[in-house]
Specification:
Elements (H helix, E strand, L loop, with lengths): L3 H32 L4 H7 L7 H7 L7 H10 L4 H4 L3
């Protein structure tokens, strides 16, 4: 049976890969938002987070694990297909 240390290492690798994907998603959102000429505050309002732009900032930094539903809302707000944001 594998040691627990090995499983922790595998788990860490999987988490890092997932974090990397959220970072790339955030980069794509930031790029598309800039291309649309929107501020983070404007995008936040368009996706239902009117009280703060910091949520969009955290998404763009890859700090938030966004749901697929939210990715759809963001894509709609940015006038792009979901696949334009997650093409990695």
């Amino acid at each position: 049976m594998p040691s627990s240390k090995k499983w922790i290492t595998i788990f860490q690798i999987m988490e890092e890969a997932l974090d990397s994907r959220y970072a790339r998603l955030g980069e794509a959102i930031a790029k598309k938002r800039a291309e649309e000429g929107l501020t983070q505050r404007q995008l936040a309002g368009m996706i239902g987070h009117t009280s703060s732009h910091s949520y969009v900032y955290r998404i763009e930094q890859g700090k938030v694990r966004v749901s697929f539903e939210l990715i759809i809302k963001i894509a709609d707000a940015l006038n792009v297909k979901v696949s334009d944001l997650i093409d990695f």
